[in-house]
Each structure stands twice: as C-alpha cells, then as structure tokens.
Amino acid sequence: EPQLSMPKAGAPSTGKPAVTPDSVINLDHGDPTMFEEFWRGTGSAAEIVIPGWQTMSYFSDVGNVCWFLEPGLDHEVRRLHRLVGNAAVDGYHVLVGTGSTQLFMAALYALSPRAGSAAGAAPMSVVSTAPYYSSYPAVTDFLQSGLFRWAGDANTFKGDTYIELVCSPNNPDGAIREAVLSSESGIAVHDLAYYWPQYTAITKRADHDIMLFTVSKSTGHAGTRIGWALVKDRDVAKRMTKFIELNTIGVSKDSQLRAAKVLRAVSDAYELPEMKEAHRLFDYGRRKMVERWSMLREAAAASGIFSLPEETSGFCNFTKEMAVTNPAFAWLRCDREDVEDCASFLRGHKILTRSGSQFGADPRYVRVSMLDRDDAYDIFVKRLSSLQ
Ligand code: PMP
C-alpha cells in the first residue's frame, strides 16, 4: 500500500509525497530514497539513452545459462564485487531477476524436489531465524505451492530437509548472521542485500552456493527492479533461469542497461583517477548512515522509552578501516511497561513502522526504515525524541 503522488502528465513519478512537520511519516517500507541526493550530484554518470529500435528482442546472450542477461550487466556485477570484495564471482553464474524478490522465488523453485520425484511427495520446508524479513513467509506461501511451504523460525525447526534463508546483515535487526542448520539434504540461500560498505564492515569475501543481491539496497535504485544471484551449481542456475522464463520470459533489458550503467558509475568513481571523491557512493552512504544512527541513538536516549540494538564493529577490508554497523533498518523496542504494541503507539504519533509481529518477533519491537529522504528522517527523529 505505498502511497504514490500523481505526476504531471508525461513527467516521471517521484515516489512518496513531500512531508511537512505535522505529516504522517511513513517508514514502514525500506524505500531507499536517501540515495536520490547522491545521484543528483553525479551529473550524467549514470544516465542512459535507449533509441526506439534497441532492446526489442527477448534475447540477450543465447550462449549463457541465463539467456536474458545483458552481458554489460554481467560485467559490471562482477567488476563491482571484485572492487568491494564482498562476494566471490569466479566460478559463479550471474543470474538477473526482477528485483532479488524474483530470484528468491526462483531459488525456492530450483531447490525444491521436483514433482513426481521420490522425494517430491511433501513440500520443502522454508525457514529462517527470527526475527526474519517479513516477505519471506509472505512470498513463500502466497501461491500455496505444493513444492515448498513456510515452516517458521530456523531455531525451532525439526527435520533435515529444508531451505534456510540467511539474511546478513539481517533485515530487520541488522545482525550479522550465519546458517544455524546443517544437514546433507538442507540448503542455505544467502540474502546479502545489505552486505555493502555503507551498512557494515566487509569482513570476508562471501562464497556461499547461492547469494542474492539487489540494486535496491546497494545503489538505492529500487524502482529499477533489478537483482542478481551468484550461483555456483550449473543445474541450480539452469532451474532458476527456467523459473524466470516461465514467470516473466526474462527481465526488462531497459532496466538491466540502466542498472549496468549505475553499477559502472559506482566502480568508475573508485577506479578512474580523474573522478571526484564526492562521487563515491559507499563513502557518501557510510557518512549518511553514521550521521543518521547517531541522531537516532540520541533521540532514543532523550525520550528514555526506546532501546536499540548494541552497536557492533569490524575491520572493513574495503575501506581498510574499522567500521561500525549502520543497519538500513532500526529495530526499535519500546520499553514503556504499558505499551504492548509499539507500532500502534507510534502510529498514534503519526509514525508508520512495521510491527515486530510481522517478523516472527515481539510486538514491543518495530522496524523503522533508515533510508528515507532527509526531510522525513529529520521529522521522525525529532518526533521520537519528544515521546515519553
Ligand atoms: N531481501 C531483503 C533482505 C530485503 O530487505 C529486500 C527489500 N526490502 C529484498 C530482498 C528485495 O529486494 P528487491 O527490491 O531487489 O526485490
């Protein structure tokens, strides 16, 4: 239910409406509009022009497992991971999806036993440690597939055939996570949407079997709807590709070209000597996130009724410095005895957040987006600090 403002005829939409000091502030979704300011400053670096005759074919690279992947996007994805050092790319297939959400569904399809196979009688159990990203149960069960089924918190799961979703840093609480289950027939899918230097120290080059990423959180281009998967096994990569073929016959080439250009602008700013420092995305993102987290911690302390997760830090191999974790969401707890439902308490003060109950957790917690525009974020922090 995102509220979209009405654009002038022919003009592009701008997302959520502008806010005033007494507006309702909607921080329920993780809409990454904070990054607009950065991209406004980069001039034409991330601009593309697509002539009317281009990107008309369904096909991009017929020799590739992922036949609808634009080679330019494949190239820029690998280049950026090599620059940042957050994930291994050699020996991996790159798959593109309409957001990483589509690739998540593709992974469930690819990893579940095939209908008709010996193991194919019961649906595959899909689990994740609570608090888990609220879309995992929602997306897993909305079509009531016979192939897979949401089975809740990984910590209380009994059985050895499962798909474990490992989100690190975790949505909603920012925790650095590893798989909690292990068995011969269990499989982990690593959702690394937030494993970028603006949010956390890059402490190791991740090399899991299936890793999901998205421009939504890395560069802030959620509206472009481009995600990618790094997949080791060729058969799994083929089956994931098959899902996307059946679901949407590929992924918008126009969006892929834009995503490739955006990723290229990010890498260029670090790798080309003539580039300005102001155009370095991760430096900008880290600075903003550090500033926002310090504002939030001050506001929570001023109010006296909210608590936040402890700050953690690590040595970042990308920046070669110690870095604190600045999660893209605040996992905020209301400590007031009489408030059992923090989301409705905040709603009463015109702050919209997502209840802990949607993440398999206590409703005394809420998840608050840290990636909105400055005006909304400033009003939120100010309002929060005044609550008693
Ligand atoms: N994984 C996680 C952990 C997320 O937080 C999100 C976005 N909220 C996604 C995946 C989905 O991202 P996309 O926009 O690429 O579908």
From TrEMBL:
Location of the region described as Disordered in the Swiss-Prot/TrEMBL record: 1-18
Example GO molecular function: transaminase activity
Cofactors (names): pyridoxal 5'-phosphate
Domain of life: Eukaryota
Keyword Zinc: no
Limits of the Alliinase C-terminal domain: 25-387
Keyword line: Pyridoxal phosphate
Organism: Miscanthus lutarioriparius
Family membership noted in the UniProt record: Belongs to the alliinase family.
Keyword set includes Ligase: no
Any one GO biological process: amino acid metabolic process
Organism lineage: Eukaryota, Viridiplantae, Streptophyta, Embryophyta, Tracheophyta
Protein's name in the database: Alliinase C-terminal domain-containing protein
